[in-house]
Amino acid sequence: MAELAESLCTLRSRRNALAYISSLPSELLATIFTYILEEQVFNRCRGVPRPGAPTCEIVMHVCRHWRQVALACPTLWAFIDHAPARRLTIMLERSKTAALVVLYTSSHLHCIVQALSQLPRIKVLQLSVSSRDVDRISDCLSSQPAPLLETFKLYVLERPGIVRPISDAIFQGRAPQLRSVELIQCTFSWTSSIFSGLRTLNLRQTGATLSQLLSVLRRMPGLEQLMLEALSTSSGDAEVFDQIPLTRLKSIALNSSTVQSTISLFSHLALPVDVKITLDLTQLESPQSFYDLSSAMYKNHDESGPVIRSLSISLMNKSFGVQLSTSMAFKCEQMWNPHDDDTRLSLRFHCDTFIIQPAIIFDMCRMVPHRYIQRLLVSSFLNLPADFWRTGSADLRGLASIHLNRNHIGGLIATLQSGGPQSSDIAYPSLHALELMYVNFGCDQPKALRDIVTMRARRGVGIRKLRLVDCWNLMDGGVQLLKAVTDVDWDGHQAAWEPLSGRR
Question: Which tens digits make up the pLDDT trace of 374-383?
Answer without folding.
Answer: 999 998 877 8
